């Protein structure tokens, strides 16, 4: 009986359920991707899946593999910040699909400050956070005072943000390309300090402070949501804003604050990414960067837990980067994105699996209870 209750408690454990659900979703995504590859070209399917999973291990040289591992970590840190942005809002009952747009605005603010205004990295970081927080605050204010669904306002602001940033950064682009000027040659003081971490990754100059900031922010978000009065008030407002108002909580202010913090996290992620110099912004792009949308999948794959998001963000970025190593002679260039998308978006079923498992356990307990009662009556 004790063994049964012990097993039951493990199955009921939220952390255990999240890990099992995440692993099942990952395996399901790989299976679906593999089937698609088999349909297109059976001879290269196994090799393609292997390339996606290997990512930087594709390189036979240890130095090259270590260097590209560092680049994957840099990209994963930005994805982690977007994931934290989504889960922070979700914990408060809001669905911040605007993390992508807030990420874009943060990128625009930090790059303009760095290239046009020649500001140092810490000021670029600060203005990226402020700009993205203001955009998030607009959706929060519309929700709080006019009951405008945050999903609708966020989607509209995504595109407003994208084209506004394109116009702004068009002033600081290179003359011969559609990309913004290189930070290392234009304003090296805007680059985030490496803090010696670059030496750990075969002198990969992109690895540095941004990686540390993202992990620290995951811990800070967990502390705020789980260990503070402020976090409790935010979650209470999300569960029932009328009840929160009755208890003396400032429900409208809490909604706006939530969206501003959520936006600030996404903007900080953009700054931590672009201020490394790992990529330049293309001012002619017509689609919002996938980083913000992948943050949604990362948040759910991590069980909406800030610490779990650290691992889920890395995994999603790992397979996304690994997709670029798929043999292009057998498959078109877009196949890597397709396979990565299958894996990423099937990760959203983590919560559905946990819900199903809890319902199954409830029904099993009811049956066991009914049998026990019948046995007692006999």
The helix-strand sequence is HHHHHHHHHHHHHHHH
The whole-angstrom Rg is 23 Å
List the uncertain runs: none
Q: Major beta sheet, specifics?
A: none
Bin the strand percentage: under 5%
How many E-type strands?
0
User: How confident is the prediction overall: mean pLDDT?
Assistant: 90
Structural account:
With 378 residues, this protein is mainly α. 72% of the residues lie in helices and 0% in strands. It has 16 helices and no strands. The protein has helices at residues 2-12, 14-40, 45-54, 62-91, 99-115, 121-146, 150-169, 183-186, 209-227, 229-239, 241-246, 251-274, 290-301, 306-322, 335-346, 350-377. The longest helix is centred in the N-terminal third of the chain and has 30 residues, at 62-91. It starts with a helix and ends with a helix. The model has no long low-confidence stretch (mean pLDDT 90).
Could you name the key traits of this structure?
378 residues, mainly alpha, 72% helix
List the helices and strands and how they pair.
Blueprint lengths: L1 H11 L1 H27 L4 H10 L7 H30 L7 H17 L5 H26 L3 H20 L13 H4 L22 H19 L1 H11 L1 H6 L4 H24 L15 H12 L4 H17 L12 H12 L3 H28 L1
Helix pairs in contact: 2-3, 2-15, 2-16, 3-14, 4-9, 4-12, 4-13, 4-14, 5-6, 5-7, 5-12, 5-13, 6-7, 6-12, 9-10, 9-12, 9-14, 10-12, 13-14, 14-15
Task: Compose a concise summary of this entry.
The protein has 378 residues and is an all-alpha fold. The chain has helices at residues 2-12, 14-40, 45-54, 62-91, 99-115, 121-146, 150-169, 183-186, 209-227, 229-239, 241-246, 251-274, 290-301, 306-322, 335-346, 350-377.
């Amino acid at each position: 009986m004790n063994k049964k209750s012990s097993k039951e408690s493990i199955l009921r454990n939220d952390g255990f359920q999240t890990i099992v659900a995440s692993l099942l979703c990952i395996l399901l995504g790989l299976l679906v991707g593999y089937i698609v590859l088999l349909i297109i070209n059976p001879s290269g399917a196994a090799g393609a899946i292997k390339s996606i999973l290997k990512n930087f291990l594709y390189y036979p040289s240890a130095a090259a593999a270590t260097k590209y591992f560092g680049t994957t970590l840099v990209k994963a840190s930005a994805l982690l910040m977007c994931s934290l942005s989504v889960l922070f809002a979700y914990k408060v009952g809001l669905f911040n699909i605007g993390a992508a747009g807030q990420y874009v605005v943060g990128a625009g603010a930090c790059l303009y400050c760095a290239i046009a205004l020649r500001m140092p990295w810490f000021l670029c970081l600060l203005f990226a956070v402020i700009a993205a927080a203001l955009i998030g605050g607009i959706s929060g204010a519309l929700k709080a005072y006019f009951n405008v669904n945050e999903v609708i306002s966020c989607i509209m602001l995504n595109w407003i943000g994208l084209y506004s940033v394109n116009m702004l950064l068009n002033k600081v682009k290179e003359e011969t390309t559609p990309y913004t000027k290189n930070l290392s040659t234009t304003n090296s003081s805007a680059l985030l300090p490496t803090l010696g971490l670059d030496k750990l990754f075969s002198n990969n100059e992109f690895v540095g402070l941004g990686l540390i900031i993202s992990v620290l922010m995951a811990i800070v978000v967990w502390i705020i949501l789980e260990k503070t009065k402020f976090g409790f008030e935010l979650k209470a407002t999300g569960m029932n804003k009328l009840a929160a108002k009755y208890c003396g909580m400032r429900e409208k202010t809490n909604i706006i604050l939530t969206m501003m913090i959520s936006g600030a996290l996404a903007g900080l992620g953009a700054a931590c990414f672009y201020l490394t110099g790992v990529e330049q912004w293309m001012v002619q792009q017509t689609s919002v960067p996938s980083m913000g949308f992948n943050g949604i999948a990362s948040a759910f794959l991590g069980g909406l837990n800030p610490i779990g998001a650290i691992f889920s963000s890395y995994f999603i970025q790992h397979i996304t980067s690994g997709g670029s190593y798929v043999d292009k002679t057998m498959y078109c260039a877009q196949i890597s994105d397709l396979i990565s998308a299958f894996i990423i978006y099937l990760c959203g079923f983590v919560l559905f699996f946990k819900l199903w498992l809890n319902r199954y356990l409830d029904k099993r307990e009811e049956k066991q209870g009914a049998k026990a009662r019948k046995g007692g009556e006999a």
